[in-house]
Amino acid sequence: MVxxxxxxxxxxxxxxxxxxxxxxxxxxxxxxxxKPQRFHVGDVSRLGGLAVGAGLxxxxxxxxxxDGRLVGLNLYLDIWYVLSWLLVLLPAVVVGQMEDVTxxxxxxxxxxxxxxxxxxxxxxLDAGVPRLGVDWLDAILLAWPWAGGLLALLAIAGLxxxxxxxxxxxxxxxxxxxxxxxxxxxxALQVGDRALAAQMMALAGATGGFLFxxxxxxxxxxxxxxxxxxxxxxxxxxxxxxxxxxxxxxxxPALLLIYPVWETVFSIYRKSVRGGSPSVADxxxxxxxxxxxxxxxxxxxxxxxxxxTRNNRTSPYLWGFTALTVFPAVLFWQNTPVLMxxxxxFVVTYVLAYLAIVRFKVPGWLRR
Length: 368
Prior knowledge:
By secondary structure, the chain is an all-alpha fold. 69% of the residues lie in helices and 0% in strands. It has one domain (2-366).
């Protein structure tokens, strides 16, 4: 499994270097100066998802082909299974990469692409949520099995956009994805699912190779393609883990991913009550408020260095926020009531923290 992780890391690292250096003809891409989510100077490539995808897919395929044939890695990866994963996620990733290049695809088309990937996963991989850990809800899923498929479709179609929302600063979405992958791999190993653990470790390795270029220097961004890849693979892994192993609480992935999911839900609510469209980007997400109101201004002669330094200082706040959900999720992955409690606690903490930042009522020790 270590070999697979290292392979994914090296491939993503090399591909990222080639993109950064413009050796693949995929160098810097122009990004509108008027975009509210722009927090960098200059034209930086948004095709980091290609590096992550290359590392992930080649590691999966290589592991499936050589395990038990050339070396005994005990990964239990089936070549047709990993190819199926890659193919069902292809529509979302391709459309995301197209948006990174053209920046002309509407939210509607991108949403349709992720819904298509979710539908393909439900049809070809039989993805479905078999239980929710609440008796009366489990009875509904037992009576109407299609409802479990609908929940899986919602997860696989929605999580890519949740990762896209939090992909605002160097190292933010990538580190969240890395922590989630490690947590999923850990629990998969606890229940003896080495194949799923290997898949997650490969994604963790590929993400690490990307982060080498992304944090702290911001030489490459994940873009929509990278966010959709992270969200799609992680959502499908969560559904698969709960579906295969009854001992894993369905609230384990819920708590694990509560930060990007709740950020999305809260953003939809916030925009709706203000009379705006949820599909219109703004600069009022939690990480953007932290950037403007918690991170102290940096005094440099070079404007670009000022923005880069403040950008880099923003992500650690959210890493800590994510760790507060990842650690209890890993510790209590079998305990549904405790996981539900922590989910509720996160929602309350998030709303209170958001209101405190908006109202400038933040403790001085949090400012830096």
